Amino acid sequence: MNDFVLEFKNVCIDYPLKKYTLRAVNNVSLNVRRGKITALVGESGSGKTTLSSSIIKCISEPGIIAQGEVIFHGKDDAEYHIEKMNDKELRNFRWNKVSMVFQAAQSALNPVLTVRQHFYETLDEHNIKLTKQEKEERCLKLLDYVKLDAERVLKCYPHELSGGMKQRVMIALSLLLDPELIILDEPTTALDVITQSYIFNLLKEINETMGITMLLMTHDISVVASFADYIAVMYGGTIMEYGRVIDVFKNKKHPYTKGLINATPSIVGDMTEVKPIEGSPPNMLALPTGCVFHNRCEKCMKKCTEKAPEVTTYKDGSFVKCYLYSKEEK
Ligand SMILES: Nc1ncnc2c1ncn2[C@@H]1O[C@H](COP(=O)(O)OP(=O)(O)OP(=O)(O)O)[C@@H](O)[C@H]1O
Ligand SMILES: [Mg+2]
Questions:
Q1: Residue ranges per domain, the chain?
Q2: Ligand 1: which residues within 6 Å by Cβ?
Q3: What is the reported pTM?
């Protein structure tokens, strides 16, 4: 079995608009480790949702994978080239192999369907042949698993559930067809901190007991520290740094990673050390030349303004895209 469930190879994703084309993801290469939780972090607009939705070819209109390959490696050693898949192949692939809990997932539930109908429709759409009793048992088991009062919740319409309950319904739904990878796009936004931590503990338990790989997008650096195994830091459509969470937090390489992590307050830390990154996120239609971060970077050198640095990859698979490390071991 391949150690990686997913490979992005030089992926570029464009939104062709009327007068211009916006390149939201620019030449991203990343391998996602099987059975682990990889966090994708970065400021708003850096391309996290665009990149992750390419995995199920669900990029919002009019987005397209303009270049590169997105390859999924199944447990059965089958290889799926997602950028080449047609609609029929995608229908079989989504939910079965990869499911996604979307940003603002709470509004993804159809207000006129009960929770039971959501589950049944998903099973029917994928031609899962189960008796009524088997279906019922499966739904109850999953809702119970996400610690909801299964009997009651199954009968409810979305408006009868709280935000955290809807979120857990979405997580249960994403597990319905036993996927190998779950993409979680800010699964706890708009929830209180206690419910947030409850949901993250639940996700960690699902990851550990079922061995399901997770790709998590979040703005919450403390969640990454306590919950993820690997971290990829995105800025202006590019991955600036990738590595094991424990290594990256201990030894942050890219000036943007340092800025992002230092901008996060800690309960035990000294508030005077919390420093926001100067400047604002880049305009994706007028990205700076050279390194996309150079105009906000404290370490900016002349060459950074002229040409983007190559990726420096280390033996353990971690990498950084910054001239400060370009002479280090490849
Ligand atoms: N449907 C679309 N049409 C045109 N541009 C889009 C579309 N969706 C996203 N974009 C642009 O692509 C870029 C990346 O957006 P994306 O939603 O991937 O960012 P993100 O990192 O997920 O941000 P956030 O943290 O706010 O969710 C942004 O500049 C955004 O304006
Ligand atoms: Mg997003």
A1: 4-97+218-325
A2: 15, 22, 24, 42, 44-50, 60-61, 63, 103, 284
A3: 0.93
